[in-house]
Amino acid sequence: MKVAITGKGGVGKSTLSAAVAREIADERRMIAIDGDPDMNLASALGIDQPDPITQETDLIEDRAGSSGGLIQLRPEVTDVLESKSVAFGERGRLVTIGPPEAGGTGCMCPENNFIRSLVNQALDYEDVVMDMEAGIEHLGRGTADDVDAMIVVVEPSQASIETAHQIQTLADDIGIDATYAFLNKVRDESEAELIEDQLALPIVETFGYDDDIASAGLEGVSPVEASPALRATARDVLDSVVADIE
Ligand SMILES: Nc1ncnc2c1ncn2[C@@H]1O[C@H](COP(=O)(O)OP(=O)(O)O)[C@@H](O)[C@H]1O
Ligand SMILES: [Mg+2]
User: Fold this and answer.
1) pLDDT digits (tens, 9 = 90+) for 101-118
2) pLDDT tens, 28-79?
C-alpha cells in the first residue's frame, strides 16, 4: 500500500499519517516520508527528527550537483534512505524532506532531482506513507502513478473543505485514481453531514475530536501512543482502502 495523506495545515495530516504508518510498520518493512515543509511527522510518531534532506546541501551537491559539468538528473541515492532516516515501530523508517533550501544561486535543480530520486527510491518499497502539504503538484505524474491512494484530511471548516476541492482537482489532473476524504475532529453527526454534503470525495472514515490526542499534543506525547481510538481508526482506514482498490 502506497498512500499519500494531504489536506490543509493543522487538520491532522501528520496525526493520521503517523497512525497509519505505525499500523503498517508493526507488520511489515515500510517507509514513511514527511514531505510537508512544516514537518511534524517525527513528533507525531514520537521519535527523533531525522536530518531534513534539503539541509544536506553538501550531499545534494555531491550527488546531484554539476561539478562534473553535467547536472545529474538521476542521482545515486540508494544509501540515503538508510543513512538519513530514523527507525520507528517494528520495521518502519522515517525520512524527512524539509523546506526548500534554494541555496545561494537560486537554482533548485540539484535539490529537486535529488528529492525526486529519493522519493522514487522510497516508492520501490511495497509500503509507503507520505505526509504531504496541500499543494501536491510536485508529486508529478511519474510519482502519482506509483501512489495507490490519496487521503485528504478534512476538518469542520470551510477553509479545509475548499482545500479539499483544490486537492481533488490536482489529483484528477495528475491521475491519482483513488482519492478519499478523512473527516477529522468532527463533533457530531450533523457536522459530519454538513461536510459530507459539500464534498465530492468518498469518505473513508469519520473521526471525532479526541481528548487523548488533544492532551498528547499539549504534553508533547505521540498521539499514536496516547490514543487507542486513533490506532483503531488507522487500521479501519487501511482495511477500507485496501478492500476498495483491490
Ligand atoms: N481528532 C483529533 N482530536 C483532537 N485533536 C486533534 C485531532 N487530530 C489532530 N489533532 C490535533 O490538531 C493539531 C494538528 O494536527 P497535525 O496532525 O499536526 O496536523 P497537520 O499535520 O495537518 O498540520 C495537533 O495539535 C493535533 O494533536
Ligand atoms: Mg503535519
Assistant:
1) 765 555 668 888 899 899
2) 999 999 999 999 999 999 999 999 999 999 999 899 987 666 777 788 899 9
Q: Of 178, 183, 200, 175, whose CA–CA distance to 244 is shortest?
A: 178
Q: Which atom of ligand 1 is nearest to the CA of 185?
A: 1
Calculate the dihedral angle through the C-alpha atoms of 198, 201, 203, 206, rounding to the nearest 10 degrees. Answer: -50
Measured distance between the N- and C-terminal CA atoms of the chain, rounded to whole angstroms = 11
Q: Which domain holds residue 65?
A: 2-245
Q: Tell me the CATH number at 147.
A: 3.40.50.300
- Please count the structural domains in the chain: 1
**Distance from the CA of 41 to the center of ligand 2, in angstroms?**
6
Pocket test of ligand 1: the residue of 41, 133, 213 to mutate, having most ligand atoms within 8 Å of its CB, is: 213
Instruction: Determine how many CB atoms are found less than 10 A away from the CB of residue 47.
Output: 17
